[in-house]
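Appendix B. Raw example, untouched.
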Amino acid sequence: MNHVNMRLLIAKIPYTANIPALLVPSLVWNGQFAVQMFFAVSGFLITSTALRRWGSLSNVNVRDFYRLRFARIAPLFILVLLVLSILHAAQFKDFIVKPKTGGLGRALLAALTFHINVLEANRGYLPGSWDVLWSLSVEEMFYLFFPVVSRLLGGRKLFVAFLFGLILLGPFGRTAFTHGNEIWSEKSYLGSMDAIALGCLTALIASRTRFSRWVLRILAASGIGILTFILGVSNRVYSTIIGRSGLDMTFLGVGTCMIIIAATQTQWKGSRILGPVLDLGRHSYEVYLLHMFVVFTFFNLFVSIGKPMAAVPALFLAVTLFSGALGAVAARFYSDPMNRLLRKRSSRGNLGSVVENRPPLETANSPV
C-alpha cells in the first residue's frame, strides 16, 4: 500500500482529498514502520532457532549458520537480480538503473555485498524493485556478523551488552549520525539494527524467563497500545520530540517485542479468518522481493485506462492480492524446493521450534 501510494502521488492523483488527514499516513505511509517491525520479528526468530539448534549462542556453528542463511535467502535473491538485469537491458522504464546511481554493474555489486542502502544514500534512489533491497542489505549485514560475534563474545552477558549497544545507538543512527542525509536517516545500518537487536534480546529473555499469565497480558496490552499509538498517529509522531529524536522506531520495536513474548509464551494462534494474513507472513520474503513487479504492472494498467479515481481502491486491493499470490507461488514452486535442496546436507535432525509444543517454525515457508 505504501508503494502504490507513492506511485499515485508521483502521478499527482489526489485520491486522498476526501480522506481525513490523520487516516492517510496511518494507512499508506507506514512502510518504514513495517520494516522496523519485521526486523524485530527476524531477530527473535533467528536467535530463538539458533538457541534451539545449538543450545547457546556461544556454540553456534558459523559454517552451518551461513549455509542455512544462504539456502533461505540466495535462490530467490539471485533470481530477482537476474530478472532485474534483463529488464534493465531491455530498457523497461521502471527498471532502468540510471548512470548517476552507477548503472547496472554498480547496483549489482551493492546488492551482492549488502550495501544498497549506502549506494542510495550517496547517489540517490534506485528503481523501486532495486530500492526495496536496502532492508535486505541491513538484515544480512547483521547476520553476516551474528554467528562470529556470538562465538567471540562467548558468555551471554557480553552478547547482551553488545545488543544493548546497538539498541542505544539506533536513535542516533536515525538522527545525529545521518548529517542531514534523508535517505541515510531511513536506511542506515545503525538506524535499523536496533530492532533486530531488540528481537535477539527478546529471544534470550524468553528462553530464560517464564512470565506469569498476568504479566503476559500486561505485555500484550502494552505492546498493542504502543503499536496502535505510533502507527495510528504516525504523521503526528514525526513532529514530536519522540520522532525528531528517532525514538519512535525504538518504541515501535519494543512494542513489537512485547507482543512477541506474549504470543510465544501463551501459544497464541490466529483465528482461521486471519489465514490469508498468516500466509502473507509465511511468504513475507517472497512477497517483499517480488511485490514491486506487481505494483508497476497494475499501476501502468491503471494509467493506461486513464487513471480513473474510482479505480484507486481496486488498484490497492489488486496489488495486495496479487502480491500475496505471487509470493505464495514463488515460495511453493521455487524458494521452498531450493531451500530444501540446499539445506539437505546441512540438516541435523529436528531443527526445533521457537514456540513450545508447536510445529517447527523454521520451515521452508519461514523467513528464517
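End of appendix B.
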